[in-house]
Amino acid sequence: xxxxxxxxxxxxxxxxxxxxxxxxxxxxxxxxxxxxxxxxxxxxxxxxxxxxxxxxxxxxxxxxxxxxxxxxxxxxxxxxxxxxxxxxxxxxxxxxxxxxxxxxxxxxxxxxxxxxxxxxxxxxxxxxxxxxxxxxxxxxxxxxxxxxxxxxxxxxxxxxxxxxxxxxxxxxxxxxxxxxxxxxxxxxxxxxxxxxxxxxxxxxxxxxxxxxxxxxxxxxxxxxxxxxxxxxxxxxxxxxxxxxxxxxxxxxxxxxxxxxxxxxxxxxxxxxxxxxxxxxxxxxxxxxxxxxxxxxxxxxxxxxxxxxxxxxxxxxxxxxxxxxxxxxxxxxxxxxxxxxxxxxxxxxxxxxxxxxxxxxxxxxxxxxxxxxxxxxxxxxxxxxxxxxxxxxxxxxxxxxxxxxxxxxxxxxxxxxxxxxxxxxxxxxxxxxxxxxxxxxxxxxxxxxxxxxxxxxxxxxxxxxxxxxxxxxxxxxxxxxxxxxxxxxxxxxxxxxxxxxxxxxxxxxxxxxxxxxxxxxxxxxxxxxxxxxxxxxxxxxxxxxxxxxxxxxxxxxxxxxxxxxxxxxxxxxxxxxxxxxxxxxxxxxxxxxxxxxxxxxx
Length: 601
Ligand SMILES: *[C@@H]1O[C@H](CO)[C@@H](O)[C@H](O)[C@H]1NC(C)=O
Ligand SMILES: *[C@@H]1O[C@H](CO)[C@@H](O)[C@H](O)[C@H]1NC(C)=O
Ligand SMILES: *[C@@H]1O[C@H](CO)[C@@H](O)[C@H](O)[C@H]1NC(C)=O
Ligand SMILES: *[C@@H]1O[C@H](CO)[C@@H](O)[C@H](O)[C@H]1NC(C)=O
Ligand SMILES: *[C@@H]1O[C@H](CO)[C@@H](O)[C@H](O)[C@H]1NC(C)=O
Ligand SMILES: *[C@@H]1O[C@H](CO)[C@@H](O)[C@H](O)[C@H]1NC(C)=O
Ligand SMILES: *[C@@H]1O[C@H](CO)[C@@H](O)[C@H](O)[C@H]1NC(C)=O
Ligand SMILES: *[C@@H]1O[C@H](CO)[C@@H](O)[C@H](O)[C@H]1NC(C)=O
Ligand SMILES: *[C@@H]1O[C@H](CO)[C@@H](O)[C@H](O)[C@H]1NC(C)=O
Ligand SMILES: *[C@@H]1O[C@H](CO)[C@@H](O)[C@H](O)[C@H]1NC(C)=O
Ligand SMILES: *[C@@H]1O[C@H](CO)[C@@H](O)[C@H](O)[C@H]1NC(C)=O
Ligand SMILES: *[C@@H]1O[C@H](CO)[C@@H](O)[C@H](O)[C@H]1NC(C)=O
Description:
Blueprint: H1 2-19, E1 27-39, E2 46-51, E3 60-63, E4 67-74, E5 82-85, E6 109-116, E7 122-128, E8 140-145, E9 159-168, H2 173-181, E10 191-194, E11 215-218, E12 223-230, E13 237-241, E14 246-251, E15 254-261, E16 263-266, E17 271-277, E18 286-292, H3 297-300, E19 304-311, H4 333-340, E20 368-374, E21 378-380, E22 383-385, E23 391-393, H5 400-405, E24 426-428, E25 432-435, E26 439-446, E27 452-456, E28 461-468, E29 486-487, E30 489-492, E31 496-503, E32 508-514, H6 517-521, E33 525-531, H7 575-600
Parallel strand pairs: 1-4, 3-8, 9-12, 11-19, 20-26, 23-24, 25-33
Antiparallel strand pairs: 1-2, 4-6, 5-7, 7-8, 9-10, 12-17, 13-16, 13-18, 14-15, 14-17, 18-19, 21-22, 26-31, 27-30, 27-32, 28-29, 28-31, 32-33
One 2-acetamido-2-deoxy-beta-D-glucopyranose binds at residues 36, 47, 172, 174-175.
């Protein structure tokens, strides 16, 4: 009893030593160097983006309300920003890591993010937001654990495994950018990576020799939590494990009604947690598969990720054909129904002890409606661009939030239309005027021929409805007003719509974008400005002291940037970051020891 009561005290005690700061919520520190690394995931040598020599990058594993400090050193040869997909940055869009709020970190320069994972739980990921860099990696997982006082609606799993799936091109991000800048499509990807690795050689016709694959080692009879993220460019993937049911338990911060699936479609930028019990007889290893959706399987066979689930008592290698996914190239009804079946567990607590269903989103009056329409790429001023409601977003030279802070005028217009424009598509920096404490309905209408996913920074939105055809006022009759999931990334099928509801309670400038990297790069995004009309420093945190300056404000930069020698050469191990890690662990151990001695004394 006594030791249990000491536990929270104990943590705060340690963290205050580490941070030299006595604020209530613990601090967690990360020291990252972002650099190139030479590997050949699909047999073709390429430079991927690694962090501290890891590809995918290190896991951010924290607990609700922790303060997270990440010191990022940019050892790439181009500008960098890291964005924290799904982290809500309450009152703090300054740390969001997108061009609307941050100046980029120049090469050979470091910048420290500091944010609190306030009032949220769940599985998310981070990635580099500029210059198409995500196509070369730089991503990693984020886990926000429940505080100890709040029950998780399932037994503690025996293990926790993060899995990244995503389409992959053998060209690097600079070459892919050139293709897009040249007005061309990227074409078919060369494969699908699972945790940065190529497919297991399940068939020599499709997988050449010498490809390294991922293996998940498990114990028979145990249950694991698998956190699966689609970090790819634009391919929807079907995830499945041979002979095993995957029980959906959480998506992007919402505990779901548990439901067994044999396979689930995971669209670009989406995250899901599954509980998987190792209940098979281990006669062989089992395949873990991520295959491209809604494509001709004969042509796309190579675009399949294959990893291995290995029981410790396995009697042999996996062999034979892969387990089949849904066989419906042109019919998206199965996938749409599958998505609609995902519901919130309304009686579970999450970041707070009150049930997730206690915020009755279906009973709140909508204050504003936006219909955002995606169309196939078009030519604007001689360039191939994508649009949202007829506007192709252009980043100004000065971040929107920073421009406002310094009263720099003319960087954007606050006139994004409620209905799609009907005239000729145009370029612009048009921003949505979001009313603070308003409750808005956003209808995402996809008039293109491929699935798009949409994401909003700073918020989780309620997925109210999804259907084929053109949305009309009558479509509201089909909304789920009770147990739709609150998440940050939602798919919109081609020739279909998805409706989401958002409570605008988080002040700042928030990016609303397609997660499909090619459409995003070509202009399919917008920002939502949410301002408390009463100026104070309570609803939004002030500009951080270390803010970088650029554009109209670049003369404020102290010290001016002068490139230094690169610490990390591609392909070599980083001695320094490992040593840093070791000394931090030593320091932590010393403090732990000290704390134990003080408490017992
Ligand atoms: C990308 O690949 C091209 C060759 O196709 C090479 O010239 C370029 O340096 C590479 N860029 C990076 C960042 O690795
Ligand atoms: C995350 O950290 C917690 C302790 O805070 C630990 O129990 C858990 O095993 C860690 N999870 C992973 C996946 O490392
Ligand atoms: C971040 O890392 C760089 C490079 O290791 C170091 O020079 C800098 O002092 C660190 N900054 C902070 C705030 O820890
Ligand atoms: C890290 O950034 C700080 C503040 O911007 C700067 O003083 C320091 O020289 C930088 N260190 C490196 C190694 O870039
Ligand atoms: C590999 O795939 C080809 C083409 O589908 C098929 O004919 C062959 O039987 C497969 N080989 C094995 C070992 O499964
Ligand atoms: C999922 O399947 C397992 C194993 O068949 C079963 O024990 C469990 O009750 C199922 N869960 C649900 C929610 O249907
Ligand atoms: C294991 O299960 C498979 C499939 O259910 C079955 O074909 C096989 O005979 C079983 N093997 C053993 C050793 O029980
Ligand atoms: C898939 O492609 C193959 C080869 O080009 C073609 O024969 C087949 O008809 C296509 N299947 C569908 C469903 O379009
Ligand atoms: C919503 O609007 C209706 C009619 O305009 C009004 O009667 C009702 O009180 C409002 N509900 C809330 C929760 O404000
Ligand atoms: C933005 O909305 C607020 C109300 O929320 C309104 O007062 C203001 O005039 C609007 N600004 C513009 C430029 O439309
Ligand atoms: C796009 O919109 C046009 C005009 O409303 C319609 O005819 C067409 O079927 C739509 N296409 C898709 C893929 O939604
Ligand atoms: C908010 O904080 C900033 C910087 O700390 C300060 O300059 C400003 O006056 C504050 N504004 C208000 C309304 O308190």
